[in-house]
Structure formats: structure tokens, C-alpha cells
Amino acid sequence: MNVAVIGMGYVGATMSVALGLHGHQVLGIDVDKEKIASFNKGIIPIYEIGMEENLLSLMEAKQITFSEDLSDIDTCQVVMIAVGTPASADGRADLSYIEEVAKQLGKVMNRKKIIVIKSTVPVGTCDVVSHIIQDEQKRRGVSIPFEIVSNPEFLREGRALQDALYPERIVIGCSSSQAKKVMNELYHKVADKILFTSVRNSEMIKYASNAFLATKISFVNELARLTERVGADITEVARGMGMDSRIGEKFLHAGIGYGGSCFPKDTEALLAIGKDAEVELSLLQAVKKVNISQIKWFCQKMKTCMGHLQNKKIAVLGLTFKPNTDDIREAPALRILDFLMENGAAVSAFDPKGMKATSSLYPEVNYCATPLQAIRNTEAIILATEWPEIVKLDWKTAAKIVAKPILFDGRNALNPVEMENWGYHYTGVGVFTS
Ligand SMILES: NC(=O)c1ccc[n+]([C@@H]2O[C@H](COP(=O)([O-])OP(=O)(O)OC[C@H]3O[C@@H](n4cnc5c(N)ncnc54)[C@H](O)[C@@H]3O)[C@@H](O)[C@H]2O)c1
Ligand SMILES: O=c1ccn([C@@H]2O[C@H](COP(=O)(O)OP(=O)(O)O[C@H]3O[C@H](CO)[C@@H](O)[C@H](O)[C@H]3O)[C@@H](O)[C@H]2O)c(=O)[nH]1
């Protein structure tokens, strides 16, 4: 099947490779000329495990091509839209990129198409896209048949290709049997995972899923503040809770809050959807509030422990919003950098993939090639992202090269007993230490 993917960001790039590996002929389109030039050289401008080698083999087999020109979609039966839907100033999803693509499609479309909305969009957006295309066609005096299908994406950064190739579920909102047939063919390798539903249900499932996962995280983070006060350990508490299959062990890992390009913006967008519909989403409001205050609570704990931070040398290990990505969007580590800067600390940092993007925002930080370089002669270490290179550091040796062995573990990624045995003053999140 010939498929065009519009918007070659994290989702578009991953879907292009996954669809290529599933045997489709893929055309990747983006307005960003540099991005397309990079893809054409076989270089993916994002870091995701397994993507580049698969891209190269697909390019060699001529199964994937790239273009800046949307009118190249002519021979594609399916057009997938994966452009960004960032938060507007008022929290609503900014649909301007989607609307622009819809306008362009209305202008250039000459043959029947199934248009698949991959981006995360509020309920009703597929109808909006449909109207924009119809209006453009009217202006051109043509009537070319098309159907809009909602097919939200559930991949996680850091394991995006795995998630796209072996999804737990594929949600598809469409109305006609013809669209169902095409979507079954598109996902022929994983067709047993498809849930067909209405377009509006499908649009809602995406926001509901992210909001629920964010709720689990804020729940455990708030509880963490309590456990350490009452002499309990949130890691053990979460483990005990998670053994009940009705609760489940996943997304109960306490830390410095959720970040990334999705949870903060999608919870915000769902709150705005509630506001527009005059339905108060008070639980979700609390989820957001806890997430914002979690990082402040953690920073305050650091300050209380260290007295003041003025001119103190402090190392931040991990900058990305989670391990195995180069994405720093809404990363909690950046809020820690803000706090340290405001309080006059001298900051060094290490991250395997996030230093390039961070250095343009925080040029005053001393970026180091290894975690050991970053922590040398520091008076405190903050673990902000649990990259394997950081968690598996030789912490025993590390204790000998710091000025003071004070360790703040923002991800509960280290063993507190082991750390204390090696001489650290260890502070985790919701971890009771004597
Ligand atoms: N990042 C994730 O992990 C993830 C996972 C699931 C769903 N989503 C959703 O998928 C969507 C895309 O997210 P992302 O992180 O890949 O975005 P991104 O910002 O990384 O990439 C978006 C791409 O769209 C391109 N673009 C913008 N306007 C265009 C146009 N008119 N024509 C062609 N290309 C255009 C941009 O140049 C950019 O390369 C969002 O709605 C997001 O919420 C993201
Ligand atoms: O127990 C947990 C699990 C996650 N996090 C944090 O939550 C954030 C998001 O993590 P994760 O969900 O793994 O990453 P994303 O790549 O943002 O993926 C989420 O957002 C995507 C975009 O919508 C969806 O497609 C995915 O299904 C959804 O998991 C990160 O900052 C994590 O550190 C925690 O603090 N505790």
C-alpha cells in the first residue's frame, strides 16, 4: 500500500519506519527542509533506538522516500497526519498545524484518499479537518471523495519503534466499511490488536489514556510525601499495591514528576476540553497541581538539607524527560536547573543524549563528557533522569571524588542502603532513611 506520512517528528518518523517494515511503500513529508535533507542522507534527526539502521535498509530497498512537497501524495491511498499539536497559551491544543495540512490537502488532492489523523487532537477535530478539506475542494470546484479516520498513537519515546511495531492496541475511529478494510490492510501484521470504534470515541481514548497514566503518577508522588513522614517507603508501598492486578505495578514509580511532550500538554488540553464543555475535571486539576508542586517540593528538600546553595558546586545527572531519548521537552531536570541557577549554585551536568538541546537554553552550565567528570569536587549530586549509564555508575568510586557525598535521587533509581554504606547522605522521594 502507498502511504504518505505528513510531519516527520517523533511520531511521523517512527510510523514511517514501522509502516515500511510492515511492507508498505512510505513517503515521509515535512515542511522543515533541513529535516528532509537529513532523512535523505539516512540520518534521523531524533534519537530512538533501532530507527537509523532500519531507515537505511528501507532506503536501500527504495521502500521509503522523503519530500517537502505535499502535492507528492497523489499516488498515496492513505495519508497519515502526524504534525504537532502543542499547547496554546490557554492550554487548548493548538490545531494550526493540522488545519494548515488540511487546507493543503484540500488544494492538492486529486484522487480518493483515506486521511488518518495520528496527532493527538480534541474530540471533534476530525470533523473540522473534513470541513476544511471540503471548503477547499468547493473553492476549486471539485469533489474528490475522502474519509477522515482517527488513529491516535500510543508509542512511548525511548522505545518508540518497538511500540509502533508491536502495539498493545490500535484504536481506530471510522464509520465506513471501506475505511475499515483499508485500515485492516495498513495494520495487517497486527490486525488482531485493532479496536474499531467511533471517531469521537477514538479521539477521546487518547486523552483519557494519558490522563489516567498521569493520575497514577501524581497519586504515587503525593503519597510519597506522606510515606517519608510516617516512616514508610513508597517503593515498597507501590510494589505491594501493584501486586493487585486491579491496580497494576506500572506507572507507580515515584519521582520528581512527569514531563515530556505529551502528559503535561495533553492533561492541560483535556482540562480545556472540560472547561469548554462546562464539566469540571477536578481530579485532573489535582493531578496537574501535584505534578507542578512535586518538583518544587523536591527542590525545597535539597535546600533544607544543604542550607544555602550560593556558589555551591552541584552536579545534575540526566537532563532528558526520561531515559533513552534526546527529548528535553518539559523535562523535570530543567526545573531543577532553574532552581539551582536562581539560588546561585555552580552547576555541572551530564546526559548521554540531552546536552546539546539543553546547552542552548542553559549556556552557563558546565556540560561534561562523563558522569564522573560532572561530579568531581561537587558538594551535591542530583540524579534527575535514570539513564542506565547513570544508575550503573561506579557509585563507590564516585563517593571518593566528590567534595561532599550528598546524593539526591529524584527517581528512586539507586539502592539507599548501598549508597549509605558507601558514605553518601542519601535522599530519595518518599524513601524513609534513618
Ligand atoms: N512524541 C510522542 O511520543 C508522541 C506519542 C504519541 C502521540 N504524539 C502526538 O503526535 C503528534 C506529533 O508529535 P511529535 O512529538 O512527533 O511532534 P514533533 O513536534 O516532534 O514533530 C512534528 C513535525 O511536524 C512538522 N510539520 C508542522 N507543520 C507541517 C506541515 N504543514 N506539513 C508538514 N509537516 C509539518 C514539523 O516540522 C515537525 O517535524 C502530536 O499531536 C503529539 O501529541 C506524540
Ligand atoms: O511510573 C512512572 C512512569 C513515568 N513517569 C514519568 O512520566 C513521564 C512520561 O513517561 P512515559 O509515559 O514513559 O513517556 P512518553 O514517551 O511521554 O509516553 C506517554 O505519552 C505518549 C504521548 O502521548 C503516549 O503515546 C504514551 O503512551 C505515554 O506513555 C516521564 O517524565 C517519566 O519519567 C514517572 O514519573 N513515573
TrEMBL record:
SMART domains: UDPG_MGDP_dh_C
Keyword Lipoprotein belongs to the record: no
Entry binding sites for NAD(+): 30, 35, 85, 120, 157, 265, 329
Annotated Gene3D superfamilies: Cytochrome c1, transmembrane anchor, C-terminal, NAD(P)-binding Rossmann-like Domain
Annotated InterPro entries: 6-PGluconate_DH-like_C_sf, NAD(P)-bd_dom_sf, UDP-Glc/GDP-Man, UDP-Glc/GDP-Man_DH_C, UDP-Glc/GDP-Man_DH_C_sf, UDP-Glc/GDP-Man_DH_dimer, UDP-Glc/GDP-Man_DH_N, UDPglc_DH_bac
EC number(s) on file: 1.1.1.22
Major enzyme class: oxidoreductase
GO molecular function, one term: UDP-glucose 6-dehydrogenase activity
NAD in keyword set: yes
Highest taxon of the lineage: Bacteria
Enzyme active site: 262 (nucleophile)
Record-linked Pfam families: UDPG_MGDP_dh (PF00984), UDPG_MGDP_dh_C (PF03720), UDPG_MGDP_dh_N (PF03721)
Ligand binding (substrate): 154-157, 206, 251-255, 259, 322
Record key words, sorted: NAD, Oxidoreductase
GO biological process: polysaccharide biosynthetic process; UDP-glucuronate biosynthetic process
Pathway: Nucleotide-sugar biosynthesis; UDP-alpha-D-glucuronate biosynthesis; UDP-alpha-D-glucuronate from UDP-alpha-D-glucose: step 1/1
Reactions the enzyme catalyzes: UDP-alpha-D-glucose + 2 NAD(+) + H2O = UDP-alpha-D-glucuronate + 2 NADH + 3 H(+)
Domain (UDP-glucose/GDP-mannose dehydrogenase C-terminal): residue spans on this chain: 315-416
Family, per entry: Belongs to the UDP-glucose/GDP-mannose dehydrogenase family.
Cross-referenced NCBIfam families: NDP-sugDHase
PANTHER family: UDP-GLUCOSE 6-DEHYDROGENASE TUAD
Protein name: UDP-glucose 6-dehydrogenase
Species assigned in the record: Shimazuella alba
